[in-house]
Amino acid sequence: MTTEPPDLGEPTLTVDELAARAGVTVRTVRFYSSRGLLPPPVIGRRRVGRYSQGHLARLALIEELQHQGMTLAAIERRLGQLPADIGAHELALQRAVVASWAPDAVETVTRAELERRAGRTLSEDNVTRLVAVDVVARDGDGFRVDSGLLRLGVELLDVPLSQDTILAARTVLVEHSRAVARELSRLLRDAVAERDPRTVKSLSADMQPLVVQALLTSFQRSLKEELREWLDKPGQ
């Protein structure tokens, strides 16, 4: 285990906090660490291990890969192909691509189960915000939740933006993503118009993760460029 001081600009988590945020047990965290799937923590004061947001993002990716049916050996090979210095945001993109392979996973859960999966206590205001962005929906005494979106929704709770701003951003993303999907669908239909329908269906399944990866990568680069231009303007 490394003993270098952690990056002070990045929040650090104890193993209990990491497990709670990820919605897994401490035993699971230690097991993944023993298999080399999670990097060792940084040892801080009082010999307490500290985990970063990168650990949390990697843990989320491991859980998603397992959810897709991958064995630990296959997950180890997959993680071994990632850059050694990959950051939390890039890991989150990897998880988003993996999650895109799966069908919608909407379940009805209790309030207690919702909080367990969220990895934190949810105030009524938190739940209202999750409902507003369509991550969960009230269903009698329970909640219908999209497991693939829950982690993103919970992270948005800590973003210092108003609910109106988040909803406006969601509207922009939905409108533009639908327009892109429509154009890509048209291009693919034109390209495979003469093929057997079964071949078209198989090609569509193969193309989906590739298209999602391309969209995520392109959007990430474009957003970086836009933010860089904005921050470089005089007075910013």
Which helices and strands appear, and what pairs or packs with what?
Elements: H1 15-22, H2 26-34, E1 42-43, E2 49-50, H3 53-67, H4 72-80, H5 88-100, E3 106-109, H6 111-118, H7 124-132, E4 136-139, E5 142-146, H8 147-156, H9 163-191, H10 197-232
Antiparallel strand pairs: 1-2, 3-5, 4-5
Descriptive notes:
The protein has 236 residues and is mainly alpha-helical. It folds into 3 domains: 15-100, Multidrug-efflux Transporter Regulator, Chain: A, Domain 2 (Orthogonal Bundle); 106-156; 163-232. Helices cover 62% and strands 7% of the residues. The chain is built from 10 helices and 5 strands. The strands form 2 sheets. The protein has a 3-stranded antiparallel beta sheet. Helix 1 packs across helix 3, helix 3 (53-67) packs parallel to helix 5 (88-100) and helix 5 (88-100) runs antiparallel to helix 10.
Query: Which structural class is indicated by helix and strand composition?
Result: mainly alpha
Ends apart, CA distance between termini: 41 Å
Tell me the β content.
Answer: 5-15%
Overall helicity: 55-70%
CATH topology of the largest domain: Multidrug-efflux Transporter Regulator, Chain: A, Domain 2
The strands making up the biggest β-sheet line up spatially as 3-5-4
Shape: globular
Q: Low-confidence runs (pLDDT<50, min 5 residues)?
A: 1-9
The major sheet is characterized as: 3 strands, antiparallel
Quaternary class: single chain
In total, how many domains does the architecture comprise? 3
Order of helices and strands: HHEEHHHEHHEEHHH
Tally the helices: what do you get? 10
CATH class of the largest domain: Mainly Alpha
What is the overall pLDDT average? 78
Question: What is the tally of beta strands?
Answer: 5
The whole-angstrom Rg is 20 Å
Identify the CATH architecture of the largest domain: Orthogonal Bundle
